[in-house]
Amino acid sequence: MKINATLLSQLFFFEKAATCSSFTQASQRLNVTTGAVSQQIRNLESILGISLFNRHSRGISLTIQGTELHHVVSGSINDIEQCLSRLTQQTQQDNEIHLKLTPSFAFKWLMPRLHSFYNQYPNITITTYADSGLVNYDEQGYDLVIDYQKIPFEHNKAQLILEEYLIPVMSPAYFAQLNTTTKEFDEKTWQQCALLHDSMVWPNATKTQEWQEWFAKHQLTIPTSNHYYFNRTDMAMAAAEAGMGVALARRALIADELTEQRLVSPFEAISADAGYYLIEHQTSSATDKFKAWLFIQLNTC
């Protein structure tokens, strides 16, 4: 017997009725009348020339032939549903990206550029997660992770995408208040300064880590007082813009503030010996497009 559209529909009704052991419950699941379910079953029994259900005052029960058919049909429908679920999930993955990254990189670097990605790929949705200064880069549930780490960062899935540089910044008013120049920014001048710290640069770092390394590279002594701490580098930069002191800013995140002279610096940027790493947990056509776009943006910034 060849299967056609009518027979497929009848088998579907049969499977629901057999699973529910009730024409009434099957009709509720299928959102049709009980009579419609009963009619489909009678038509199927007529085509097959066998009885599939025993009808009695307490309801219905499968016959021996009905039990055999239900076993085959239910297994086939379950296989179809699982296949459709996989295909649907794959389609969703091809159009959606779950991206985990540090809040500072998200707000200061990614968000101002993200509109260009959506202009290029309007059918891809990026859900960003940037809820903590430190990123758990091995946490499952994310397709891509962008994290700030010391160089080298030993991780089998990590790719260095942007090496970072550090530069001390302050508001123009704060700089003028110091009444100094680059050459005169010496130990005495530094003792007048309040230092603004990103206290969570990477796991196991001390809360003064970046400033300690900066002063060591310049063979200077870090001030012993007037230290203020933030768990995100963009917060330290905002505090510097507000005139609270001097922040050690990441160059990739500070371009607009320097161009608009909301922040100034008499120093050259130096290597942070750290950078942004891309960690890929899941690969799809959507993540491939995002990575290609990301590398273009990084090469033009």
For the termini, the CA-CA separation is 67 Å
Number of helices: 11
Read across the widest sheet, the strand sequence of neighbours is 4-3-5-10-6-9-7-8
Roughly what percent helix? 40-55%
What does the oligomeric state look like here?
Answer: single chain
Total beta strand runs: 10
Give me the strand/helix succession.
HHHEEHEHEEEHHEHEHEHEH
Low-confidence stretches: none
Portion in beta strands:
15-25%
Task: Give a short account of the largest sheet.
Answer: 8 strands, mixed
Mean pLDDT: 89
Alpha-beta content class? alpha/beta
Q: Give the C-alpha Rg.
A: 32 Å
Name the shape in a single word: rod-shaped
Describe the structure.
The chain is α/β, with parallel strands linked by helices and 301 residues long. Helix content is 46%, strand content 21%. It is built from eleven helices and ten strands. The chain has helices at residues 5-20, 23-30, 34-48, 64-93, 103-120, 172-178, 187-192, 209-217, 233-241, 255-259, 285-300, and strands at 53-56, 59-62, 96-101, 125-129, 144-150, 158-169, 195-198, 227-230, 246-250, 270-280. The protein has an eight-stranded mixed β-sheet with strand order 4-3-5-10-6-9-7-8. It has a two-stranded antiparallel sheet with strand order 1-2. α8 links the parallel β7 (195-198) and β8 (227-230). α1 packs across α2, α1 packs across α3 (34-48) and α1 crosses α4. The protein is rod-shaped.
SSE blueprint and pairings:
Layout: H1 5-20, H2 23-30, H3 34-48, E1 53-56, E2 59-62, H4 64-93, E3 96-101, H5 103-120, E4 125-129, E5 144-150, E6 158-169, H6 172-178, H7 187-192, E7 195-198, H8 209-217, E8 227-230, H9 233-241, E9 246-250, H10 255-259, E10 270-280, H11 285-300
Parallel strand pairs: 3-4, 3-5, 7-8, 7-9
Antiparallel strand pairs: 1-2, 5-10, 6-9, 6-10
